[in-house]
Amino acid sequence: MKKYLYFIPFVLVPLPFAGYPFLLSIFVLIGIYTIAAIGMDVLTTWAGQISIGNAAFFAVGAYTSAILVVNFHVPFLIAFLISGLFALIIGIVVGLPALRVSGFYLAVVTMAFGIAVQQIIGVFQITGGYNGIRNIPVPSFWIFKASPLYQYYIVLTIIFLIFIVLSRISFSKSGLALFAMRDSEIAARSFGINLLKYKLAAFGSSAALTGLAGSLYASAIGFISPSQFDLTLSLDLLAMVIVGGAGSVMGVMIGAAFFVGLPFLLSGYNISITIIQGAVLILILLFLPKGLLQIFKIKDLFKKKVT
Amino acid sequence: MVFQQIIAGIITGSLYAIVALGLVIAYKVTGVMNFAYGYMGMISAYIFFTCFSMVGMNYILSFFIAIAFGSFVGYAVERGLLRPVRNISPASMVIITLGLLLVLEGVALQIWGNNYQQIPNLLNGLPLILRFNGGIIVIPQQNLLILGVVTAVIIALILYLNLTFQGKAMRAVAQNEEIAKLMGINSSLMMSISWIISGSIGALAALLVAPQTFVYPDMMLNLQIMGFTAAVLGGFESIPGSIIGGISIGIIENLVGTYISTNLKTTFSLAIIVAILIVKPEGLLGSAKARRV
Amino acid sequence: MKKFFVFSVILGLLLTFAFAADSSSFGVYPDKVVIGTFQALSGPYAIIGQGMLKGMKAYFNWINDQGGINGRKIDLLVYDDQLNPALTVTDVKRMVEQDHVFAVVGGLGTPGCLAVMGYLNDNGVPFVYQGSGAPQLSNPPKEYVFPVQPNYDLEGHLIARFLVQNQHKSKIAVMYMNNDIGQQELDGIQKQLADFNMKPYMTIAYNPTSADFSSDIIKLMSANPDSLVIAGLITDTIRIVTQIKQYGMNIPIVTIYPNADPAFIQLGGKAVEGVILTGWVPIPTKDNPDFTTKFDQYLKIYQKSYPNEIPSSYAAAGFIAAEVFSHALELAGPNPTRDGIVNALDTFDNWNGILAQGITFTPTDREGKTSMYFMKIENGTFVPISGWITLK
Amino acid sequence: MILSIKALSVKFKGLIAVNNFSMDVEKESFHSLIGPNGAGKTTVVNALTRVVPSTGTAFFEGFDLLKMPPHRIINVGVARTFQNLELFKNLTVMANLFIGTIHKINYNFLDEVFNTRSYKSEQSKTLQSIIEIAEMLGIKRYLNMPVSSLPYGTQKLVEIGRAVISRPKLLILDEPFAGLNDQESEKLKEEILRIKGLYAITILMIEHDMKIVMSVSNKITVMNFGEKIAEGSPSEIIQNRKVAEAYLGDRSYFRS
Is C21 close to A2, i.e. CB distance below 8 A? Predict the structure, then answer.
């Protein structure tokens, strides 16, 4: 149970910042991207499938939840779950080509999917077209008022739950089947692993996690439009995984913090964020190929047993 | 109108093809999917702009300086950035080139400022006008030039790879680096050469298209995406494949735009491409690689 | 574990100190007024954001050189949001909650503006000038939100009306970008044409980053419309117009106000001769000597900060944003409050500044600028071909 | 008779790799499949385990292997090793062995997430069998190490362990002795024979090392150019002219 103690600091983090809701909003965003990046991690690090179209699942989740909440006044929690479910279904459909194509071919197929979803959202009425959907409310529940603090704990709870699930399956049938598929499809198949099932499961769960993150994003930002879900977002999600530390929830969290935190820290100084961001990305990969997790020397929690 | 659209598609497609070609050369030998490719070319377009419009050199000299710069960028990126981390995962490699993209985009903006810049066409004469049963197709000389250059580059590359010793050595490295090394081939030199070729093709593509798109940091964005798609559609490792891939995409796009939908043109075009890949997972001219187990 | 815990605590403390606020006032100090803006200064939209920021800075530098407004200099905080609304939201919250800006002036980009509009209004922070033509900014009106730029829907109406009533066209084709601007223009045109019991003769959506448009032009030619509206930005509009000319098509082409920029003529050269544009920022011409002097003044102010640079239309937008806010601050008196700014802005009645012309706000109508005019490119200059036109 | 292959053919792009191949494997026998390089031995095994598509039939205890989805083959009791080692190289030895048992595991995803009783008991049963096999093969101390960090010989043991832990009725070994020195080979041979006796496994082995083949096999099938050219006991094969001809020019086989 020791590994769960790592979450205690995160529970305490907001206390000093209660007076600065905007800092909490940043933590909320970090949390949201963490969830989406874990979705990417499951797909790439666990199952060995490459995707540069995960922004589309993020968009599917964000739009599903926003449309349900804004147009149909569905309670947030239900909209949240439906958005995950819907993304799951779409993810399984997108996973189908992965049964035939792999490597960079799969990368381009997923990229095509990402671009297409962006365009489809822009064309239809129900999604508000290119004008997007605005006034998406922040969820409130029972005695908890809509506030960044409350959002923070929602997001933290979800990450915690994902962490528990991932650490429990990592040395069990489901997790090891994915790892096996990643390392050798031929051997995995010879030992009874149904590649069809596990590839679709990987795409489905990746999409579901990303979709849930999208749903939270829509309510945190309050406005969504197709341009927010572009190729850059897909690549950023992949970069978060790699920069932070692939295969570890903590690593992915560090990656997300890097991606949200760096522009935030630099945005007021009139220096080019892209140059610094790009240079730091390159330097990290040149000197810390296993990601920032390497410097923090945080134990690789659930990979401990496996790799 | 079908015929007109197909001709127009070939013209657009030749642009995709040349970008795809450069990507494939670098991929074949070093296995890197270069997301900064178009942006490397963009820098060369700015170099041309600087030499020609700001310094006032003549066109041909500026052109060759820009191409030389492109090949230098290719060399430097492979040597300085990718070589030290050859064995990291493909996803990490993608992220390094993404970092490079961000840096190049920012640097261009810092150095050349926030204005769109212009560079002139190499050929500025009267466009070629074809008329047939009521339809018309106008091909500006610059586009004919692009078509010609693409063809010439392909022929040159194929001759180089098949006839010269160096080209054969490069193909050997592409097929199996270890064995090539054992045979005494300087594989590290071959990798550098592949990126030098790739870098100069990228610069060439940017210079050819810049008179149309103008010069600004994101000028190659669309071409780069379509170049990737073309490369994959063609079979990613096949040089003729990248050309066929590029031209097919140009034609598919135009036919979709004409007969299906304009506001979902990209979506339908990409759907068709994905469908082709599902039927032929190794691309149009790629070969299925059977791994020995 | 212990290390990690210590690390988190230190990080927390650092952040607390880094962002600890030292003032509870609202951006008004004895010697300065602190305001904020968000602009895309890096990333794909930096070309627009950098231009707009230059316009704002040029004006504020000029004001500050004169001693500021009512003895207070204007201190502009700039945050780079890369036109990514997730960053816009955190940046704007930081401006309000930590920097305690008095107002937000001139934010760039529809997604960012729409994402923070509600937050600023709820917190009573004046939000003056948005670099966006989204109709949702002014409709419905919001107490603290003051859009200045005409919205694209309105522009679409005006263009359709101009083509039908002035030019007597009936087969109007529309080429529009596959994005929010294109869609809003198309909506406006369609609505106006519907009032005339008409429809666009054909519509073609396009990807603004495409290099080649011959396919669309072949389609256009075979349909043979009598006029064409291009709802695009500078580079793609020029590409389309150039190719249309190459195909020998000779129909009136109307395009939208973001293109009324010196760069449009400079880059487009001969190909853009005869193109009709809308404008909301007046241009200096012989028959408008009054404005010529004002335009010269604008150039002088701009070039004081950026010597030898020709300002872009985005710089003009930033300049106007600064002008409108500064004038309101002046009207709000020696002890400005946020509500004072709102009241001052609501007194704008066809107000003319240097570049800003005919700006009007009332508590119930927040479309700052509703009139536009048409101009044509002749011999490499913009020549007005109509007076101010409005819908009302 | 546990496995009966009839008229097996494999074609690659018009090239015939295996042609009309038939063979029977007796229950609990040690059957070797030999032949010069490129004779199609590995292709036969790949066809049986559905790595490559093929025609013909291969009945194993009433199931036609060639009609089964590849991931079901282990369920009827056929496990294999690979010529070039197909270990899960980023995983530990323990995880590799675990994957060998994965087809037998009964719990589902929800059991894992909620840590149910059936999950816990299955999991401890599996861990026990992993330790048992590891002890038997003498690789227990490597359990928590990534396989890629182990010496080649040990990796071979892990691969055999992964196949054995699945409790196969038929174990197919594809050149298990390639790349090992004499000492390692001798050790591995003993291990294989011990496992065979312990679990009453039938073994089908492809091997080049004639000395080992002759010493362990009950029956040998010889292939050349995708066809069967001889079959019989080791002593019969040694005297077969066709076999000698097939190996002529491939001197590597006379090393022993």
Answer: no
CATH number at residue B156: 1.10.3470
> Based on the number of CB atoms within 10 Å of its own CB, is D56 exposed (0-12), middle (13-18) or buried (19 or more)?
middle
Band (pLDDT 50/70/90 cuts) for residue A11 is confident
Q: Considering only the beta carbons, identify the residue of B33, B225, B278 that sits closest to A100.
A: B278
Read off the pTM: 0.92
Residues B122/B142, Cβ–Cβ less than 8 Å? yes
B293 lies in some domain: no
Q: Determine contact, residues A292/A285, Cβ cutoff 8 Å.
A: no
Strand-pair category, C371-378 with C381-384: antiparallel
A positions 250-289 inside 8 Å of B (CB): 272-275, 277-282, 285-286, 289
* A288: in domain: no
Mean pLDDT of C200-226: 90
Q: Is residue A238 one of the residues assigned to a domain? A: no
Contact between C374 and C282 under an 8 Å Cβ cutoff? The reply is no
**Which among B9, B109, B116 has CB closest to C235?**
B116
Neighbouring residues of B82: CB distance < 8 A, sequence distance ≥ 6? B30, B32, B93, B96
Interface of A with B in 41-70 (CB under 8 A): 44, 50, 52
Cβ-defined contact of C15 to A132 (cutoff 8 Å): no
Q: Which residues of A touch B113 (CB under 8 A)?
A: none
| CA–CA gap between residue B194 and residue B203 (Å, rounded) | 14
Query: What's the gap in Å between the CA of B59 and the closest CA on chain D?
Result: 52
Range of the domain at A61: 7-231
Report the number of distinct structural domains present in chain A. Answer: 1
Averaged pLDDT of chain D: 89
Longest C-alpha distance within chain D, in Å?
A: 65
Q: How much is the ipTM here?
A: 0.90
Q: Are the Cβ atoms of A104 and B274 closer than 8 angstroms?
A: no
User: Nearest residue of D to residue A193 by CA position?
Assistant: D71
Instruction: List CB contacts (< 8 A) between B23 and chain A.
Output: none
Spatial strand order in the sheet of D30-34: D78-80, D170-174, D202-206, D30-34, D219-224, D227-232
The reported pLDDT for the residue numbered C18 is 52
Spatial distance between the Cα atoms of D255 and D251, rounded to a whole number of angstroms: 7
Rounded CA separation D56/C51 (Å): 73
Is A116 within 8 Å of chain B by CB? yes
In a domain, A58, yes or no: yes
Name every chain A residue with its beta carbon within 8 A of the beta carbon of D146. 307
3-class DSSP assignment, residue D16: strand
* Domain assignment present for A303: no
Please work out, in degrees rounded to the nearest 5, the angle formed at the alpha carbon of residue C210 by the alpha carbons of C207 and C214. Answer: 100
Q: Which residue range is the domain that position B260 belongs to?
A: 2-279
Provide CB contacts within 8 A for D183, sequence distance 6+. Answer: none
Chains D and C, touching by 3 or more CB pairs within 8 angstroms: no
Q: Tell me if C263 and B115 make a contact (CB, 8 A cut-off).
A: yes
- Chain D residue closest in CA terms to A197: D71
Q: How many domains does chain B fold into?
A: 1
Domains, in order of start, for chain C: 24-150+293-345 (3.40.50.2300), 152-279+373-384 (3.40.50.2300)
Structural domains in chain D plus CATH codes: 3-77+167-255 (3.40.50.300), 92-161 (no CATH)
- Is B109 in the C-facing interface, judged by CB distances under 8 Å? yes
pLDDT at D252 over 80: no
Which amino acid, D38?
Answer: G
Interface of A with B in 128-187 (CB under 8 A): 186
What is the Rg, in whole angstroms, of the alpha carbon atoms belonging to chain D? 19
In this structure, the dihedral spanned by the alpha carbons of residues C305, C309, C313 and C319, taken in order and rounded to 10 degrees, is: 10
Using alpha carbons, select from C44, C45, C22, C65 the residue that is nearest to residue C305: C65
